[in-house]
Design brief:
The protein is mainly alpha-helical. It is built from 4 helices and no strands. Bound molecules: flavin-adenine dinucleotide (FAD). Flavin-adenine dinucleotide (FAD) binds next to helix 1.
Length: 111
């Protein structure tokens, strides 16, 4: 967010690290911002409140982005093997897939 310009999606860095999933976060933050701007339009609150609410919303997710960036850094440094074993186990959609998916969906927006 720069003065009165609100950024969502890739321009705001909302694309999720590790998976590169960007459509759902972009839609989520856009919807949240649209709600805030709509409430401002109807006089429920003024621009400074919109600005701080949108900043607070993004701050709520910063830890999740931090974790996913960390996971991306760690996985990028893995040699093959074991990275190949990991992805084959992941593709088999067994315990590894379920465990990793559960953590990802807990971290990924929207909560
Ligand atoms: C190769 C690739 C594959 C991807 N695969 C996936 C996937 O499978 N799933 C997923 O969730 N995400 C995926 N992503 C990420 C996802 O595409 C983005 O995170 C998402 O599209 C971001 O949406 P956005 O609206 O912020 O930006 P964009 O979708 O890039 O939209 C921005 C729009 O603004 C337009 N624009 C730019 N400058 C101007 C200007 N000056 N004036 C007017 N218009 C302008 C652009 O032409 C564009 O249409 C992928 C990205 C890439 C590059």
């Amino acid at each position: 967010m720069a003065s009165d310009v609100f950024c969502v999606g890739d321009s705001a860095g909302h694309c999720l690290p590790l998976t590169g999933e960007g459509i759902r976060p972009a839609a989520y933050f856009a919807q949240q911002l649209a709600d805030l701007l709509n409430r401002e339009r109807t006089g429920e609150h003024a621009r400074p409140a919109t600005r701080s609410a949108y900043s607070a919303l993004q701050a709520r997710y910063s830890r999740r982005y931090h974790w996913l960036r960390g996971a991306q850094r760690v996985l990028r440094g893995w040699p093959d093997p074991p990275i190949g074993w990991f992805f084959r186990a992941f593709e088999a959609e067994g315990r590894v897939y379920r465990g990793v998916s559960r953590v990802y969906w807990e971290l990924a927006v929207p909560a």
